[in-house]
Design a protein that fits this description.
The complex is a heterodimer of chains A (720) and B (421). By secondary structure, chain A is mostly helical. Chain A has 35 helices and 6 strands. In chain B, a hairpin with a 5-residue loop joins strand 8 and strand 9. The chains are: A mainly alpha (720), B alpha+beta (421).
Chain lengths: 720, 421
């Protein structure tokens, strides 16, 4: 019955489309009343937005593009752009109308037509499009010029060869001096996209400063773009200060994207000036906090919190006085709550720890288990970081155990384990409570933690062996994490309370050796068994060795990652806490810029012709690849380079080349580099320079022509 | 660069899609929808989601008639806040056009406008114009006149004239504005965020202020606003029209305003403030029920002042195990939502002499466990002609040949105002 209903309703929709087609035909033939036409076109587009296939109306809709009503025109264009890709042949029908509209007297119509024409994305049409784009760039109306610039970009993606031969890149450069701000920023965007494959847009200093000087002409989005570009320059001290002065105002902007762009530029241009850099970090904190406080919604707050966290990792004492801003509110979504808790953990110092601890305890009973876990973990981290607060934290945690809520107890036990690792003296107090915990906790991880503590500090608790005995008897039902800990714990306890433990240990080893469900458990059991059989003294030395106190835990400390992230300030990486290389895929479509086109580029832009992208390869991976690949190309030539200079040239890591290793032994200097091509695999290169001899370059790559190309690229560009 | 934009309704249907860099199948929204169904409430959906080919940014447009989601798609690394800010700007522009709290039906009805706006706000994936003043010149806001004229003559609803704003030195103001009566209104709105413990002690409090302006002035007026006590302000953020150097020099706010409504500035205040409304809850649960006793009072200077807190509403989210409540209040009315167990106590206007009180008992469902934690109460209120920070306008000078009507109002609201019990 349901199927039937669906069929009829589908049929109904089809009828509707057919009816609409008839109506459009009628209107088109009469070329009549514009109200009817507009209504019919609206109907068609509304069907389209509901996901109905109305592609069959294409011929009629093309005819209706010929109108003076600008709304109707817009709607028809919208329709055409949606269906043109699927119907390239029929699309030729609308070229005439679009062509005519592109020379209309109204700039709005000219702009619209050009936008539609370029958005059709039909490769057959590029020859028609080119002259229109060229004319539009010189149009009197800024609206048409800015649309034209974007149309040029679209033309580039469809036909890069044609784009270059028409010399459009140069024209776009001229538009950087356009009186209209939007035209300028659009031209920048277009150039960025066009030059992305050949090393990116690098503006000369004078152009950049001119843009910065007229920053107020641009929309806030345009400002983001220009400010971002400013971060890519290299500056003299004087220029650097001038740029920072020019941008300082923008830190007060209400648009968070602009503020973040300024922050990024500040951080990146002061990178090599430690003192200034530190000053910048504290300068930008205020504006970021204001944005966070005024953020009307959590979506904006979330990236801001991530960025503040990153700043904090660089400068520990940054937010000492502002920590209350990060107190969690009941209405915050979970992702904000956990981010705030992490920040508070990082901020906590001896002055604020007591207050922060109090706060965390308020979140610990949150009905959301994940938030409660985050808060309790934070309590542990703070207790470990700040010894002065540890006793207080511990007593609060133990208090909370009385609530006897399973997920809270699980988290507390996990935290307690770390706390006693750091402060072994606290173990007696903790151990007293473990018995009650035993029956509340549910997670295997938490159970394993209890077992570990009993083994490690069990000498202070007379009934510890009996607690463990219960587990030994429940062996088959245990999780393997618990089993592993149980083996170690009972073995350790054996040396502390031998009498009570002996029967338990015997039964345990019997159980474990006979258990082949988990190899680790089985192996550890066998190891212990053999150790004990050989010599109990030896076993004591291995199993029950004295622990050295731990000053701090290494987990969670990733300075390299943070440094990397810092370079990628104001990107998604910060939100993900992963460097770009690990999650951003390169766009699949790659267009090679041909030498002829490159010659057409202004001088400062002539960049190497290989399409490379940076990529990480560890030395070990490099070595493995080097062994796998056959030598592709070899070349020897005399360059007037000293060994140090040779290494320096490669070490610049320009053009996507990554230097893996270099070194000098005797009179021979070797450098190993690699590049990653966007479309193909990696190409590896070895450069060898013997004192007084020629430099020999050897490239290894999966295909020989690429190796050849790379060697000649290095020879021509890098070394000459 | 933003690849596409989708607008989804509450049940996950695609209402609108706009592709700036080639078509993308709607099915990509399924990844987003998975997150929505997995989340306990729409607010919990993380703002950035990774899919095999795209990064999905989303914001929630929360309205009573049904939530909507605005989704932007990107293929590569972007500045995350640029995308999120843009989506919010789209929401703001739609609010300008289709009214506060616009819903699904309003968008569907005006779908032609929606598409025009999406088209003008972004080209090839980069935000272009999001300034409502300029957009209004390219896409006319829906109004009655247009509907009538459209029906009669079928003429275009588009001004043939192009926005000159983009060419003027001030991109936020067009030239040749003319009003028969010149007037300008300033609204100082302060939101107090506070966390208090059960004794009425302040755990944290902060004030976030915004000044919204409704400007209906002819020609190119140059305005200067001064405060009596600018030293109170801590961090400030300005509309692009404000001259920063004047602020740095003598704490004046000097600007040529955009036409119509805009947000002039936002600010925070140094140090905390005394939260104007104080709530003291006493809630104790046992295994079978609990006792509730909530007192509400206000700070001293409000008791003396002319205006009293209004629209006072206290919300108590009782634990799910609560079956019924036997409560009574001295002022206002209350209601317990049986489904969500949220008790809403509407006090209205605070009485000057009396201290409102809500007290009584609640009973727990049979077999329900005793709640682990006491509820976090929240309070809402508005206080007209009052600023929590104490900031006041000293003077407003309009440098023009005409004498405009000038109005300044202030309002303090409870923002995220929470009381732990």
């Amino acid at each position: 019955r349901r199927v039937m209903m669906m069929m009829t309703s589908g049929g109904g929709k089809r009828d509707e489309v057919a009816e609409l087609k008839a109506r459009l035909q009628q209107i088109a033939s009469r070329a009549g009343s514009s109200t009817d036409a507009l209504a019919a076109v609206q109907k068609a587009v509304s069907c389209m937005t509901q996901g109905l296939d109305v592609s069959s109306l294409f011929p009629e809709m093309v005819m209706l593009a010929n109108t003076r009503n600008i709304i109707q025109k817009k709607l028809v264009y919208l329709y055409l752009c949606t269906y043109a890709e699927a119907q390239p042949d029929l699309s030729l029908l609308c070229v005439n109308t679009l062509h005519k509209d592109c020379s209309d007297s109204s700039p709005m119509v000219r702009g619209l037509a050009l936008r539609a024409m370029s958005s059709l994305r039909i490769t057959n049409l590029v020859e028609y499009l080119l002259p229109l784009v060229r004319d539009s760039l010189l149009d009197v109306s800024p609206y048409v010029r800015k649309t034209g610039v974007m149309a040029a970009t679209k033309l580039f993606t469809m036909a890069p060869g044609l784009f270059a031969s028409a010399g459009l890149t140069g024209k776009l450069f001229q538009l950087l001096d356009d009186p209209d701000g939007v035209v300028v920023t659009n031209a920048l965007l277009a150039l960025q996209e066009v030059l992305a494959q050949s090393g990116g847009l690098a503006l000369p200093h004078n152009v950049m400063f001119r843009l910065l000087a007229r920053l107020k002409d641009f929309t806030e989005w345009g400002q983001c773009l220009v400010i971002d570009l400013a971060s890519q320059l290299e500056y003299t001290q004087e220029h650097m200060l001038a740029t920072m002065n020019a941008l300082d105002d923008k830190l007060k902007h209400t648009n968070s994207a602009v503020v973040l762009a300024v922050c990024r530029t500040f951080l990146s241009i002061t990178q090599d000036h430690a003192e200034l850099h530190a000053a910048v970090v504290s300068r930008i904190t205020g504006p970021l906090l204001l944005l966070m406080e005024t953020a009307a919604n959590p979506e904006v707050m979330y990236p801001l919190l991530a960025h503040l966290k990153l700043l904090l990792s660089q400068q520990q004492n940054l937010l000492y006085d502002d920590y209350k801003l990060f107190y969690v509110r009941a209405s915050d979504p979970r992702y904000i709550k956990t981010a705030k808790i992490e920040l508070l953990t990082l901020i906590a110092n001896s002055r604020s720890a007591a207050n922060i601890l109090e706060e965390m305890m308020a979140y610990a009973t949150d009905s959301d288990a994940l938030c409660s876990r985050a808060a309790l973990t934070a309590v542990g981290t703070i207790a470990i970081k700040i010894p002065a607060i540890a006793t207080k934290a511990l007593s609060k945690l133990l208090c909370l155990l009385d609530m006897e809520v399973d997920y809270v107890a699980d988290s507390i036990v996990l935290v307690l384990k770390d706390v006693v690792r750091k402060y072994p003296t606290a173990s007696a107090e903790v151990l007293d409570r473990l018995e009650t915990c035993f029956h509340i906790v549910t997670e295997p991880q938490a159970k394993a933690s209890i077992v570990w503590m009993l083994g490690e500090y069990g000498e202070k608790l007379t009934n510890a062996p009996y607690l463990l005995e219960d587990l030994v008897d429940a062996w088959p039902s245990l999780h393997s994490d618990v089993k592993l800990q149980l083996l170690s714990a009972v073995a350790k306890l054996y040396f502390k309370q031998p009498q009570a433990c002996q029967p338990v240990l015997g039964r345990l080893l019997q159980n474990a050796v006979g258990d082949d469900s988990d190899v680790d458990v089985h192996d550890r059991a066998l190891l212990y068994y053999r150790l004990f059989r050989r010599s109990p003294e030896e076993a004591a030395r291995v199993i029950n060795s004295a622990k050295t106190p731990i000053p701090c835990f290494v987990e969670g400390k990733k300075p390299e990652l943070q440094d990397r992230l810092f370079e990628e300030f104001n990107t998604l990486s910060v939100v993900y806490e992963l460097p770009q290389a690990l999650f951003v895929r390169r766009p699949p479509s790659c267009v090679e810029v041909k030498p002829a086109e490159a010659a057409a580029l202004p001088n400062q832009l002539s960049k190497p012709l290989l399409e490379l992208c940076s990529c990480e390869l560890t030395p070990a991976e490099f070595q493995r690849l080097w062994g796998q690949l056959a030598p592709g190309c070899q070349q020897e030539k005399q360059w007037q380079l000293s060994p140090a200079e040779l290494v320096a040239r490669f070490k610049k890591n320009a053009h996507g080349i990554t230097c893996i290793a270099s070194g000098t032994v005797g009179d021979t200097t070797k450098v190993y580099v690699h590049v990653q091509e966007k479309t193909g695999g990696a190409t590896l290169l070895e450069a060898v320079l013997r004192q007084g001899a020629a430099i020999s370059l050897t490239a290894r790559c999966a295909d020989a022509p690429t190796a050849q190309r790379f060697v000649s690229f290095v020879a021509d560009v890098l070394l000459s | 660069m933003i690849h596409s934009i989708f607008i989804l309704n509450e049940v996950g249907d695609v209402l609108f899609e706009k592709h700036y860099r080639g078509l993308v199948q709607r099915s990509v929204c399924d990844y987003f929808w998975e997150q929505v169904t997995a989340a306990s409430s729409p607010e919990e959906v993380p703002p950035v989601i990774v899919t095999p080919h795209f990064y999905l940014f989303n914001i929630l447009h929360s309205v009573r008639s049904g939530n909507m989601y605005f989704i932007a798609l990107t293929t590569a690394e972007v500045n995350p806040l640029l995308v999120i800010e843009f989506l919010h700007r789209v929401e703001d522009v739609f609010t300008e056009y289709f009214g506060q709290g616009f819903g699904e039906s309003a968008l569907k009805e005006e779908f032609v406008k929606v598409y025009q706006l999406l088209e003008e706000m972004m080209d090839n994936g980069f935000p272009f114009t999001t300034e409502p003043n300029i957009l209004r010149e390219m896409v006319r806001a829906p109004n009655i006149v247009e509907k009538v004229s459209g029906a009669v003559g079928g003429t275009s609803s588009m001004t043939e004239q192009l926005p000159s704003g983009t060419l003027s030195i001030m991109p936020w103001r067009k030239e040749g504005v003319k009003y028969s009566t010149n007037e300008v209104f300033f609204d100082i709105i302060e939101e107090v965020d506070a966390i208090m413990d059960l004794g009425g002690n302040v755990v944290s409090s902060e004030v976030v202020g915004t000044i919204n302006v409704n400007c209906r002035l002819s020609a190119m007026p140059d305005l200067t606003l001064t405060f009596t006590n600018p030293a109170l302000l801590d961090d400030v953020g300005f509309h692009p029209c404000v001259r920063h150097n004047r602020w740095e020099q003598n704490r004046n706010i000097s600007f040529i305003p955009p036409d119509g409504q805009f947000r002039l500035m936002s600010y925070t205040v140094k140090g905390g403030v005394q939260p104007p409304v104080v709530v003291r809850p006493q809630i104790r649960f046992t295994d079978t029920g609990g006792r509730v006793d909530v007192n509400v009072s206000m700070v001293h200077n409000l008791q003396q002042g002319k205006t009293l807190p209004e629209n006072v509403v206290i919300t108590i989210p009782f634990p799910k195990g609560v079956l019924s409540a036997n409560l009574s209040c001295t002022v206002g009315t209350f209601a317990l939502d049986q489904k969500t167990k949220v008790c809403t106590w509407t006090i209205g206007r605070m009485p000057k002499e009396k201290m409102p009180n809500l007290s009584g008992t609640v009973t727990m469902q049979v077999g329900a466990t005793r709640p682990e934690s006491n509820p976090v109460l929240s309070a809402q209120f508005t206080i007209a002609m009052y600023t929590a920070s104490g900031i006041t306008v000293d003077s407003l000078v309009v440098a023009e040949h005409y004498k405009p009507f000038k109005g300044v109002r202030s309002l303090t609201k409870g923002g995220r105002y929470q009381i732990r019990s």
